[in-house]
Write a structure and sequence with these properties.
Length: about 300
């Protein structure tokens, strides 16, 4: 499930601005054919966000009865938001002092990416080459969560069988369930997880099918995380090293052991770095689970 969050601390604010031209006022960039410009010193109820902004309007668009409908851009010059812009759409000119109206905020860049909202203007002074406007800007910025880096740790076991791993576009962010098939050895595993885009994915079973018995699926709770996995590897068929047992430890409970630890002679444990948890698996499988490794990410 793809998710979005609403950032309101810096973007969802109403700002009334009044600009007076002076020696240190921000530049107004306007084409000679378009006698309008935007200049603002924005003050918000939260804090002083901006000391100035610079706007340019491109004479591209379509003619309208009251003027020209054009995309315009408010480019911020304050150090904190330097390089960020707001994209506004509306009717520009002809106009005179005292005129009021609305522009739609249809996007942005930098700190204001995905901004949506309105910009109310009031033309308060005519100057050479343009107009001075009082602006009231109200926008909400929608931001997509940044994927957390995923690391691989391990693997443990032998080199037999076929390699299985998750593709780059399907990397996990949370483990939802785990099913283990085992008798004297770990025969195969299957699991489901939520990927970095919020989509649920199901994997496996990876492994063989001869004589396997299925244990009840472990369904992890919404706040349950796999913290460590204990296991053992041993000899299978005389010359192959495979995984013989697994025990799953979460922040809530312990599951297992699965398989037979006594069949293995080399214990191992899958331990993520501090403040990380196990969110998926990779490895090698043939008739049984030859090798296992884990994907981990920050909690």
């Amino acid at each position: 499930m793809s998710s979005t969050s609403t950032r309101t601390s810096r973007c969802a604010a109403t700002s009334t601005t009044s600009c007076r031209r002076r020696a240190d006022s921000p530049t107004i960039l306007v084409p000679q054919t378009l006698r309008t410009g935007i200049c603002a010193v924005l003050q918000t109820p939260f804090q002083r966000l901006l000391r100035g902004c610079r706007a340019s309007a491109s004479p591209q668009g379509r003619a309208a009865k009251a003027g020209i409908s054009l995309p315009s851009y408010i480019a911020f010059t304050d150090q904190r938001f330097k390089g960020s812009t707001l994209s506004v759409q509306g009717i520009i000119g002809p106009a005179s002092s005292g005129d009021e109206g609305d522009w739609a905020v249809v996007g942005g860049t930098g700190e204001f990416v995905y901004a949506q909202g309105t910009c109310k203007y009031k033309r308060i002074q005519t100057v050479a080459g343009g107009l001075i406007n009082e602006l009231r800007i109200r926008v909400v910025c929608l931001t997509l969560p940044k994927p957390k880096p995923v690391q691989k740790i391990g693997p443990w076991g032998g080199n037999g069988g076929k390699a299985y791993e998750l593709q780059d576009g399907e990397l996990p962010q949370r483990l939802e369930s785990l099913t283990i098939y085992a008798d004297d050895f770990i025969q195969s595993i299957a699991f489901s997880y939520i990927d970095q885009a919020g989509q649920k994915r199901t994997v496996g079973p990876w492994g063989g099918s001869n004589g396997k018995s299925e244990y009840p699926t472990i369904q992890f709770g919404p706040s349950e995380s796999v913290m460590v996995i204990y296991g053992a590897t041993g000899n299978y068929g005389g010359n192959t090293t495979v995984v013989t047992s697994l025990t799953i430890v979460t922040n809530v409970s312990t599951y297992g052991p699965y398989g037979k630890h006594s069949m293995g002679n080399t214990p191992f444990h899958v331990q993520p770095p501090s403040n990380h948890s196990i969110v998926g698996f990779y490895g090698r499988v043939g008739q049984v689970l030859d090798q296992i490794g884990a994907y981990v990410t920050e909690n």
